[in-house]
Amino acid sequence: MTLTDTESAAVDQVPTKPSVLMCRPTYFTVSYRINPWMFPELPTDTDLALSQWQSLHDTYVGLGYDVNLIEPVEGLPDMVYAANGGFVIDNIAYGAKFTHVERQPEGPAYMDWFRANGFDVRVPDDINEGEGDFLLVGDVILAGTGFRSASSSHKKLARIYGREVVTLNLVNPNFYHLDTAVAVLNQSSEGRPANIAYLPSAFDRPSLDILRTRYPDAVIVTEEDAAVLGLNSFSDGQNIVIASRALDFERQLRERGYNPIGVDLSELLRGGGGVKCCTLELRR
Ligand code: ARG
After folding, report:
1. What are the counts of helices (DSSP H) followed by strands (DSSP E) for the chain?
2. Could you report the per-residue pLDDT of 224-271, keeping only the tens digit for each?
3. Protein fold of 5-281
């Protein structure tokens, strides 16, 4: 069957649904402390983590996303935070190299998955925690440093992807990954510029100046919403899956015409992660 010009134009306009990678929290627990959210002395409820994760998974499926799964590995309790497994644009997967020894085996596990699924894998030399610290916003990559990813990895990113990389310095240990301090709201399309939401106090002065200049229309979230990892959200440009407890963020998104969808990941918050942490976008 061949399409007429009008038909193919209509097909072109259908927004493409995101492809994401997730990892079931089968072995989730908090057995070490590598961020201030983690208290290994307190028991965790893996069944609760599983059912909350399932609701995030089912939300994505309901939105029509292409949800891919990587097999969880016993002994890697943080593997559920798939965002840290790498960074993927243009079918190129830049692998992760974790800061802490506890998470280091996750790097190769994710790279194996990327290879097996047809991605061009670049093995990293520099410490970086993938989409936890790297966010594609329009034409640029915002890249966090200060707690986890080394700024040398930012230079590597620029070389691999041929895009401008903007380094941002994180200063608050509670917001140790960029995706805990910045949410991407929409990419640029049809004259609408890409936009973000962020927590100003998570950045040093020069980085804050960069954010203010580049995103004058950004959503500024409250400390309360950031404290439930409200910024750690996933947007397809219209629907934005957020922490259900981030009420003011939800209100601000609604006012701007987005469709916020709240999900409760309280058990996974005890590892220091939320919606976005559990989600790695696969851009082919
Ligand atoms: N316990 C994990 C860590 O500290 C949580 C990772 C959260 N992931 C994220 N993309 N922010 O490394």
Report:
1. 8, 15
2. 999 999 999 999 999 999 999 999 999 999 999 999 999 999 999 999
3. L-arginine/glycine Amidinotransferase; Chain A (3.75.10)
